[in-house]
Amino acid sequence: MAGRNHIATTNACKLCTPLGATLAFRGIEGAVPFLHGSQGCATYMRRYVISHYREPMDIASSALGEKHAIHGGGPNLKKGLLNVMKKYHPRLVGVATTCLTETIGDDVGRILREFRNEFGDLDLPDIVHVSTPSFAGTHMDGWYDAVRAVTEQLVEATSGVMSGTMSGVISGGSHEAAPGAAARGPAIAGATMPGTTSGAISGTTPGTTSGTVSTGLSSTVSTGRTCLLPGLLSPADIRHLRDVMEAFGLAPVILPDISETLDAPCLEAYAPIPAGGTPLDDIRALGRARAVVEMGDPLGSRPSAGAALHARHGVPLFRVGVPVGLRETDTFMEALERISGTAMPPRMMLERGRLVDALVDGHKYVAGKRAVVYGDADMVTGLCAMLAETGIRPVLVATGARGCGLAARVAAVCGGLMPDLPEVREGVDFHEIAERAGTLAPDLLVGNSKGYRYARAWGIPLVRTGFPVHDRFGGQRLLHVGYTGALALYDRIVNALIERHQTASPVGYGYM
């Protein structure tokens, strides 16, 4: 696998950039995603998203054709915006470009300025635009670029940069060990995990056990709301993260919030714009936020939404890994303790203890098993962190994205827990993943549903995570994050391995 032995991409391990932007815009209150490009792009994305979330998904389009590729798509973009205003009455329109409009060089910013000047007498919605050519990224780039565009174009200016001892960037999770990780209290008996030293994973809470925790935050922002930038997680994940933050006494502003817009209750009448999403007033006020917690490593070296809030408005920025598994969730809890000034709630302590107990109980079924992990870089990093602490060895870690520093991130979360670090591949498709994985004899695959054909061919289980999940029901309700999500995911992993062994037995058995 030293080099590609084929030219075309075969079963890509990524999705197109504007698709991610449309999902992000869907998580904003009263918003309509709008693609500046051909009608086929919007139709494809609608169908793809609906198959995973099982929710109707309207995506407007400027519906460009051949003549617009020559003369430009400005008139169609303006006409499309007027039609969207008439039909949907949106509070926000999120305009994302496509390969076509990026290739012909449409200046969307100029076109939108002309639109505002020409139709300023109308009650115009907020319009946010973002550049999302598929030839320059993945759906995750589209998601993160859209979120950054929202913060840069909607957040109101603040009177000055906030001050405080924690006004800088605080990193943790997949980037470094959690603060105070060595002083989490006495370990539950037998809670030492494979590949760790005794007490490295304890059964009690991170931080203090009761009372308050010093935040180090400036008192001038102590009453502000806390912004969470979670990345592309499931609606169930978003609901759980909100619940966790509220348990700490924080009032979270989650951007974007797809917890209701892409997993809505049954309604008597169709709603063209579903209820829910991040309120626009809350977005505008983010310059006065108490802190911002940004999950994953969005955009690599490019400015992210969290970095924009920190640089432009002085909002303290906490960077953590996606909280999948014990240690990454510990780091997230540490951040919430420091922001809120309170210790982890007793309910969270019990959830953590149940997770540790499950890791001990299931160790004999998973220790030494070999896994191939693939998907979005942020989710993959969290999954590797969890697998390594359970005793499962990720042997191949792959993503379709390029330049995301995945090797260093995986080394940070797996180092010290495995005899050898896994092989890491960026910018690959499933043809390349399968070519290499076939020689590594994995016991299971962990990733989205696009890997099923290989799991079937090799006779091993696929534990479905992330996006997309097209061949199973309930992908929008898969819980990955927090102690509760880790426990649910661990149960699925253990049971998948048990089922494979049970099915392969010549006599079968009904008792473990």
From TrEMBL:
Pfam families: Oxidored_nitro. The keyword Oxidoreductase applies. Transmembrane segments: none annotated. GO terms for molecular function: nitrogenase activity. Its EC number is 1.18.6.1. Belongs to the NifD/NifK/NifE/NifN family. This is Nitrogenase.
